[in-house]
Design goal:
The chain is α/β, with parallel strands linked by helices and about 475 residues long. It has 15 helices and 20 strands. GO terms for molecular function: aminobutyraldehyde dehydrogenase (NAD+) activity.
Amino acid sequence: MAIPVPSWQLFIDGEWREPVHKNRIPIINPATEETIGDIPAATAEDVEIAVEAARKALVRNGGKDWANATGAHRAKYLRAIAAKITEKKSYLAKLEAIDCGKPLEEAAWDIDDVAGCFEYFADLAEAFDSKKKTPVSVPMDTFKCYVLKEPLGVVGLITPWNYPMLMATWKVAPALAAGCTAILKPSELASITCLELAEVCRDVGLPSGVLNILTGFGPEAGVPLVSHPDVDKIAFTGSSATGSKIMTAAASLVKPVTLELGGKSPIVIFEDVDLDKAAEWALFGCFWTNGQICSATSRLIVHESIAEAFLEKLVKWCKNIKISDPLEEGCRLGPIVSSGQYEKVLKFISTAKDEGATILCGGARPQHLKKGFYVEPTIITDVKTSMQIWREEVFGPVLCVKTFTSEEEAIELANDTHYGLGAAVLSQDHERCERLTKAFQAGIVWVNCSQPCFSQAPWGGKKRSGFGRELGEWGLDNYLNVKQVT
């Protein structure tokens, strides 16, 4: 049964508003390649209106309506949003599946996480009331000193297409909890559920202008948002190339940015593992969300003594992964998000082959699916560290493999990357795991697992994977200014 896609407008100042230039962007279902609707295309003129609305909301009634209200006041809205999202979970998950190609079951888990994230930051907003004024001990009795934590102001939030509603929530929830007002610019490749978030905000009575949502292309909507002098901070999740451009644009205004960028994360598997459990984590870590995860552990580094048996097991398991329309029951791998991304993934695979690597399994369109942007789960061996497939982020279901003989070699291979988002180690030797945890040049380390993520724990990387942390108390700090008072 076809799922109706609403024809939304831009969400500005608590109202649906047609873009100034009235342009629309088609929505393509990646499973069928069919156009299923369209979204509004914002431009600089719309950004101007949205920023003005956010600025007015920030200072309305002397800030008492939002920025200077109690955390408990803001928490009521965050909890109401969470409850409404839970109520609409089934509908939102289906929209997400047809918009970005994510298997329906995974999309439903994401919507649970969205609600959980709003609830968590509601808790932090309430707790913030007792923490926003903190005394500081100074060595002279003549003076008293304390620190105030205050909302940064109007923030621009730019989010990706792989977890459309969840990645938006990672930014929206803490920004609102802190007392900021915001303009959210989701990816033009998957924006439907972010527009649904706007409708949820209307339903719960969120004060007008506190959250504004502009869909559109990066150059037309994202660039004017980043460079706007009345936007006090930019938080971005996406590619390293775009992150670099955002950082450059923000630098001219000395505007703070938080960047969560790409990754080429390693998963190191030692010879003492349970092969079945290790195989499950290796496949999950790379092929979850159709392989389109910034933190995907897409470089498998396996001890040479178990490599042959382990790879045989991986290939066997890959052949049992159900690749289908995301709405089909039991789907475990859906399509790549767009034709452009699909071609990019296939080009990575063909280049690996041209450079001398071996396509151990997958590497092409599944034969039973004639339409849709599908790529089989792919394992590539005989990889050299100079190859593109080892060095660059694919953002698709592609796992490249190297073997190692010593712990030192494993660490060297793991850190042989410009990126530093995640890293995983699998071994029954706890001391060894501890050594690798300390040696990994990454912001997130998984021990005997890959990819678990919790709203309570910080998320972010180092090197070219960006800087700053989302989630946890660190996520709230992203949107707060520290003021010393003496």
